[in-house]
Design goal:
Blueprint (H helix, E strand, L loop, with lengths): L1 H27 L40 E6 L4 E2 L2 E2 L11 E6 L4 E4 L5 E3 L5 H7 L10 H7 L3
Antiparallel strand pairs: 1-4, 2-3, 4-5, 5-6
């Protein structure tokens, strides 16, 4: 039993050494010269011609810097640090629209349209609780209409 285990350990160490030697060999080899450009349909454009991007603009999703912020619905009561968050103007405590702005601030909007900044929430909280982005809207009103407000 002990001989089998020692033999297995020895074979494992030899395999490790062989793998490390192979990695060291590949790290020391010079990069081979690449053959000249192949002429074909992919490289048929003239040197000064503009090559189109991978995706046309209609298919590209805007980046985080291209949008003013993200929004999501929050229908249940919003509990922050053990207390239910209420609108300071009207006392509403559910059916929020939560905005995550480009600067990292989080704003809440009640059904009556009162907006307040919530300093206890941040972008990390928003990312944990929001789903994937399903629509991009050109205006705030379009986004609110999409969310039912």
């Amino acid at each position: 039993m002990f001989r089998r285990r020692a033999r297995a350990d020895r074979e494992f160490r030899e395999a490790q050494r062989a793998g490390q030697a192979m990695l060291a060999m590949h790290a020391e080899l010079p990069v081979p010269d690449l053959p000249g450009r192949v002429s074909g349909p992919a490289t048929a454009a003239a040197p000064g011609a503009v090559v189109p991007e991978f995706l046309p603009p209609d298919f590209r999703a805007p980046s985080r810097q291209d949008v003013a912020g993200f929004m999501m619905r929050w229908d249940q009561p919003l509990v922050i640090d053990g207390e239910v968050r209420e609108c300071p103007a009207c006392g509403a405590y559910r059916n929020w629209v939560v905005f995550n702005m480009r600067d990292g601030s989080v704003w809440l909007r009640c059904t009556d349209g009162h907006e307040t900044q919530e300093s206890r929430l941040d972008t990390a909280w928003y990312n944990r609780n929001s789903g994937p982005v399903d629509h991009f809207h050109p205006t705030l009103e379009d986004g609110l209409r999409h969310l039912g407000h």
